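pasting Si:dkey-5i3.5 for the record, 330 residues
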Amino acid sequence: MGNLALPTSLFRTDATTSEPDNSGKFVARRICNGIIYYYTPMTAAEHQTVTLAKDSQATSTLFPVSSPVSLETPSHTADSSPMQSDAASNSRPLLLFFSWLCAQPGAVAKYRELYLDRDMDVLLIQSSVMHFLWPRWGLNYGLEILNILEEPPFTGRLILVHASSIGGYTFTQLLTHIAQQPTQHTPLAHRVIGHIYDSLVVGSLDHMATGLGKTLVPRLEGFIKTTAMLYFRLFKSYTADLYENSIQVFYNNPVTSPALFFFSENDAMCSTAVLEKLMDSWRRRGVSVDGRKWKKSTHAAHLRCHPEEYVSTLQQFLNSLSVPSHKSNI
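structre below
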């Protein structure tokens, strides 16, 4: 599969938006349809640190320092100088948040704020149902994301992955390209310092079809599930066979940094037995794997159902990665 052509500038397309949130705490930039970059503008102190590090050619810092990228912003973004108010700090870790299907902005914001408050920038990646129903489109999307991550202002930055529900499938499409073209993409895999999976859809085609029904039109769940199973059978070589390939890639994940799983026993879209088998398989490969399981919770809503336990577990995991933060907690 050839490389997808990207715009000359990722931030200078008709789809690009640039506006701060109401509180002025962060800037949001739409890179393309489904992908939005959230970052906190560099402070004067951060800019001075980056400049000094660059001038002294420091190479021993945990996070590589590169020149800040100047991104065009309408004049209403901030009153201070562009360098202080509208430049992203390329020394910060980048959180890739692969959201669940049909995620609402308010729900996504809760996860975004967890990481922005911990001094990370966030790249929100949303998936279309067609990325799943026609996997080749999902693979194209995965390659587009990979290309974006290898362009400024993301080049060389350390990455943390948080994938929820179908987001795990989308992340796997990136992993497929990494596995198929290791020479080209393995350096990016080595930049991933940790990966978090929340409510993965794991098990059989039946679990996948159930997920579609519950997510798309819950009132027609049974009909959608039956239709999806028929579709999988009719187009097996274009769907089920490619899903199986993706599962094998995920089992042999080229990202071997520490992993964390959130899941529940009553999740109809996830076979806990299969998921725990996967976790054990990774441990045998030498991957550090942690998990938080609840007897009862809601798919892709563990943070809402069990906020204190969720945040505490996440905090412990992030601390184990030595992710720097100027905040005492999240």
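Confidence is low (pLDDT under 50) at residues 1-20, 56-86.
Residues 135-149 form the longest helix (15 residues).
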